[in-house]
Amino acid sequence: MQISKSTHLKHLLRTQDVLISGLAYLVAVNFVWFIGILSSSAVVDHVALLPLILLFSIAALKFENPGIHGKRMFVVAFLSARYALLVVMALLATAYFGKLEFVSRYAIGLYGFLLATGLLSNRLFLRWWYFTGRREHPENFLQVLVIGTGNRANNLMQSYKDNSEWGISVIGALDPAGHNQAESKLADDVPLLGDVSEIRKVITDQVVDEVIICLPRSLLNNVSVVIDACAEEGVCIKFLADLYEIEGGSYQLEQIGTWPVLSLNPISRSENSLIIKRIVDLVVAIPVLLLLAPLFLITALAIKLESRGPVFFKQSRVGLNKRKFNMIKFRSMYEDAEQRLAEIEHLNEADGPIFKMKNDPRVTRVGRFIRRTSIDELPQLFNVLLGQMSLVGPRPMSLRDVSLFSKGVQRKRFSVRPGLACLREVSGRSALSFEQWLALDLKYISTWSLWLDFKIMLLLIPAVIKGDGAT
Questions:
Q1: 3-state secondary structure of 315
Q2: Cα 468 → chain centroid
């Protein structure tokens, strides 16, 4: 359940541009009123123009290039100023031809300045956040595996890098013809990882966002194992549009430079729906965290009064495309719980690669209460804010649980962003067997929609109140 990072960033920028435009207009109007240039009634008239401002802002997107990666600051500043100028000119033209005499030139001038400044500042911040300022920024690069070692593969990957908004990291190549490194025509910085028979090992052991198939027709019969392996684990496949026919999945034709590329994603999702899902995550998580601040404080005091150790428990979990992150929970166990797990492993009451024990001696009294009421899960709203989790999605699994997966298809859950709750949490929770849990997660992945997320959130309320299946 992922979309192209470059496409996602461009959609994000366009959405933010419209929001910044509306905010800049309101700030400008209120500032001009504050210094005494506008009367209160004139402020009301100006605010009534806000829908028109947003409409002009959306229309101006057609003339905008939202890219930020690899562009000089001068170019970014010019594009920001041009966008602001288009919106301001549209507003002034409307005021002139519509004879809107109440429109303040001071407010419009300040609005244009704030809009251009806001757009530029936002772009520079995003460029720093995604590409330069964070120490871990190479981990955000698109991780690509190439199938092919000839000139076509090299030319396509160079064009891919030149035309991608996001950073590209080619982790290596697999050759269906079995050439060695000396015979291949790969660039020096691209390692040859073997032939296509190694595909399952590579995409299981490494972070792979996309597999690019770039082969002559004579070798296409050798890549069926690649298609099957990627489909099983939910890894996006891309190949030259006229080279391979496959049924099922989600197809999308893209133009990367002068190269036509056909994408096949085994997890078919609407990009717009995924953007809305992320917006909903933020709109819900931020106010809920503010409302829950008193409960967080009370819970933290109770935990500290009963046992030694930190208030929060952080554990490495496996997220989207096997990227690891620290999931945050209120600590419900004694401080040495992880070390004591080996002592009681034989008492595991759950099926499959998970550990569950009804009367786990490692759980504190406060821990039992916050587990039963699901209070211990609430700090994961911070993970939602960071984009590591979503409000709704399969629960993230620990490294231990993932290492015990017995089937490749179980890793398909890594094609979606993990969440606070999913179908399991409204269908019995811990009372379900591991196989039932997995079946529900795979059902969610294959039938996902915004409406399904909404239904799960509604059903979660009575499930939490009843505490059915909670441990």
A1: strand
A2: 30
Q: What six digits make up the tokens of 142?
A: 């698109």
Q: Is residue 329 predicted with pLDDT exceeding 60?
A: yes
- Residue 300 contacts residue 311 (beta carbons within 8 Å): yes
Q: How far apart are CA 439 and CA 316, in angstroms?
A: 24
The CA dihedral of 130, 131, 137, 138, to the nearest 10 degrees, is: 130
Euclidean distance between CA atoms 234 and 218, whole angstroms: 27
E strand residue ranges, 331-379: none
390 has a pLDDT exceeding 90 = yes
Sign, CA torsion 144/146/149/155: negative
Is residue 376's pLDDT more than 50? yes
CB 83 within 8 A of CB 60: yes
Q: Which two tokens stand for residue 381?
A: 């709203």
Select from 382, 403, 468 the least CA-distant residue to 429: 468
Q: Please state whether the predicted TM-score (pTM) of the whole model is above 0.70.
A: no
The 10 Å CB-count burial string (b at 16+, else e) for 343-371 is eeeeeeeeebbbbebeebebbbebbbebb
Mean pLDDT, the chain, whole residue set: 79
Distance CA(187)–CA(14), nearest Å, equals: 35
**CA-CA-CA-CA torsion sign (332, 338, 343, 348):** positive
Alpha-carbon distance of 465 to 373, in angstroms, equals 7
Kind plus residue range of the DSSP H or E element containing 239:
strand 236-240
Q: Which residues pair with 213 in a beta bridge?
A: 147, 239
Task: Give me the CATH code for the 141-265 domain, please.
Answer: 3.40.50.720
The percentage of residues in the chain with a pLDDT greater than 70, rounded to a whole number, is 75
Rounded percentage of the chain residues whose pLDDT exceeds 90: 15
* CA pair distance 440, 452, nearest whole angstrom: 13
DSSP letter, residue 176? T
Tens-place pLDDT, residues 126-184: 877 766 655 445 666 778 888 887 777 777 777 766 666 566 778 888 887 766 655 56
Domain residue spans in the chain? 5-132, 141-265, 271-466
Whole-number Å distance between alpha carbons of 329 and 371: 10
